[in-house]
Amino acid sequence: MFFNKKNIVPLLLFFILPFLDCVLISAAEDHDQQTNSASETQGLNLFDCYRLALKQSETLSIEQELIKESDGRFRQALSGILPQVTFSTSQEWQDRGGSSNASSEIPESKFVFSQPLFSGFKEFAAMAASRAERRQREAQKIRAQQLLFKDVSDAFYFLLAYQEDLEALKVIQTVLTDRLEELNKRVHLGRSRKSEVAGAEVRLRRLEAEIELVNSQKEVARQLMEFLTGQEVVHIEDSADIQTDLSDENDYLAKAVERADVRAAKEAWMMAQKEVLVAYAGYWPAVSLDGNYYTKRTGSSKNIDWDITLKVEIPIFKGTETSGAVKVEKAQLAQAKLQLDLAKRKAEQDIKNSYVSLKTAWKRKEALAKAVTAAEDNYRYQKEDYNNNLVNNLDVLDSLQELQDTQRDFIAAHNEFNRDYWNFQVSLGAIDRDTF
Asked: 309: phi > 0 → left, psi -120 to 50 → alpha, else beta; which?
């Protein structure tokens, strides 16, 4: 019969596996949708955005390719000290000089061996230069990652500032709307004037216009964040716990020499030193050992299977080629040293500027935090005095406006402080992608 114990299992698998694939794919899609939904609900934090930007950045991909390029140059330099083996075959036709046959065939096949013995240590210097270049490229990639973090943190806190500013404005809008309704009721009762209602409505409409402006600024900041992350950004949340305990400025300046871009400049300087040695190798003799192992020969050399040649080439006069190459490499060495000195000074200046900005931002944030508390108390007292007919409605609106302005200033100062904090960490070279 067709259905038996041997073929029933394959048949069942044939019909069931496609169904299982559909179920698994559907479950995976549901999981992805739930993950994305949770991400949108909870919001992305700074480090989430940075991880996404690391995957998106074309600059980092270019730096990675430059590292591979330096690996290729190392392999090229290494080949200069390794033996070379080739197989050569040839077929020669030679005139017999008046004999009956017009020409004779002379076939030859052989393995050719060549081993460089000495060339002024040029290959070793080139290998050392390639290793220094790789370290330079790796340091440049680290610095590119740190600068990308700076871009992401700037965009993140710009967007967060607009997001929080918008929320604060909407709270004030609700308060003003409630205030306007209360004034309308008081007008009907004859306890307030219509001018008070008109004044409150002016402030409300101006606030609505400000909300629209902040909305547009938030949209621009959101687009910048999406450009960096390569993903739609609906909502962000700041989960970083920033503790500020600054040491003396000189303690941070000592870290400038360890920054990735300074290390990259140092490796470039070391590479330039090795390139000078490569150029000087042109003055030295070159010694190599060449050999042939014949697999097919004719004529008088038919029974000779191999030969070895020791070759020594001593440069006597090559014009000004070698001296010109040395001069070029020495000039590039001097440039690399100047670039290293410049990188150090720029790193120190960057640290100084970031240090001052962070200290100022911290003091400003603390002062505005106290100002917000005082403005809230002032608004509460003004409302109480208004209910007791001790002040007029204009005083209440002025205190509300002052509260609004102070809250917005604090939001801006708080996010500026966070942004300056991370910029300071970047200036120190303290951002490591493995820690996030």
From this structure: beta
Q: Is the dihedral of CA 370, 372, 374, 376 positive or negative?
A: negative
Residue type, 99: S
* CA proximity to 170, closest of 218, 238, 226: 218
* Over residues 128-156, mean pLDDT: 92
Nearest residue to 261 via CA among 150, 122, 109: 150
Measure CA of the first residue to CA of the last residue in the chain; give whole Å: 64
The structure tokens listed for 138 are 């790796």
Q: φ and ψ at 86, to 5 degrees? A: -135, 160
What is the pTM assigned to this prediction?
0.77
Residue scoring higher pLDDT (257 or 390)? 257
Query: Which amino acid belongs to residue 235?
Result: H
Complete domains list, the chain, with CATH = 49-93+107-435 (1.20.1600.10)
Burial of 195 (0-12, 13-18, 19+ CB in 10 A): exposed
- Lookup: tokens for 1: 């019969």
* For residues 10-29, average pLDDT: 47
Alpha-carbon distances, residue 351 vs 250, 423, 429 (angstroms): 10, 9, 10
**Sheet bearing 306-313, strands edge to edge:** 84-95, 103-118, 286-296, 306-313
Note whether 142 and 258 are within 8 A (CB). no
CA atoms within 13 A on the CB side of 295: 9
Mean pLDDT, the chain, as a whole number?
84
| Amino acid found at 381 | Y
Three-class DSSP labels, 251-267:
HHHCCHHHCHHHHHHHH
What is the pLDDT, as a whole number, of residue 222? 93
Q: How far is CA 373 from the centre of its chain?
A: 40
- CA separation (Å) from 424 to 130, 245, 362, 413, 430? 33, 13, 13, 16, 9
Residues in contact with 285: Cβ distance below 8 Å, sequence separation at least 6, in sequence order: 118, 120, 312, 313, 314, 315
Q: Which of 166, 150, 117, 169 is nearest to 46 (CA)?
A: 150
- Phi and psi of 153, rounded to 5°? -65, -40
Rounded distance between C-alpha atoms, residue 280 and residue 331, angstroms: 14
Q: What are the two backbone dihedrals, phi and then psi, of residue 103, each rounded to the nearest 5 degrees? A: -155, 160
Q: Which pLDDT score, from 0 to 100, does residue 5 have?
A: 45
